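Example 3.2
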Amino acid sequence: MADTSFILPSDLKANYEAYREELRAAALRVLDSGWYIGGKELDVFEADFAAFAEAGHAVGVASGTDAIILALRACGVGPGDVVLTVSHTAVATVAAVELTGATAALVDIVPDTFGMDPQALRVACAALKDGHLGTLKAILPVHIYGHPVDIVAIRQIADEYGLALVEDCAQAHGARLNGQRVGTFGAFGTFSFYPTKNLGALGDGGAIVTNDAELASNVRLLKEYGWKERYVSHVAGMNSRLDPIQAALLGVKLKHLEAENAKRREIAARYDAALADTSLVLPTVAPGAEPVYHQYVVQHENREGLRLFLRERNIGSLIHYPVPVHQQPAYAGRIALPAGPLTITEAAAGRILSLPIHAQLTDEQFDRTVAAIRDWDASL
């Protein structure tokens, strides 16, 4: 069952033509303006997204991967440095670290919400402080599946060791912890607008948020060749720009994001109630967390049996992510694990399954999914 949230916000489903016209008008404004790089639509979206994220500044970039690269570089991360992150994530997280020239070192996750384990992080920081892998420079936690990590504990460790804290919020647009938006606890929050994200473009896109004006200025330099004035590079930068047509379309969708996230939470609550008495391990919500359910992830020892049973009934499900980064061919045997084996990460990879959840999920689709799961569970 495909996630079609990039096509039609649920609160406008009954008025598809009006919504389509709103998107068309946004794209035409860019075409008519003659500004195909930068311009007013990008400026407006950046301001609106900063307000949504409750951050002082937002900078649009070409992708979520670029957002991480630029945020780390703006914090001074580069060759000879070490960044601590997790293996239970999209490979883009680790790839972005390596694209700065830094070394990625991976720590384990907690078993209930799959986020970075602060205890493992503390062990890793102690193990790396001698500099044998390089200069420990930053921590990059991932708010996986739209659930906030224990960012308060992680920030405390970052402060103790004098490390930059960059939050990977690619799956967590609008999530909160203790009332505070994710992405605003550290130096930077990085976001992806890949089409299937809670806020998705009609192509690639990303953004970086920060409350530090100087850091925002650094990112703006780095994302466009290091230019302060055109054609004069003051630092060695790159080319990473959010297309103004994408910015205009994202601006339309941003107006409906809170409603979309509320719908995801409603569906998650219905799953919780409908599957409470099955043998599945259901998602946990940590105290103070307000997740946005980019995915609804269950666990079961016979995950493959459930996945195949659903597929036979034309009900889609996915595994996010079946192979931890440290076990993938490109990274196996060369990624540091300073706090020891990633036991929880590896166990989770064999148990997790993402059920259909998006703001357009119909009652019929939901009921059919739940009925199939209950039939499978009863047959065990």
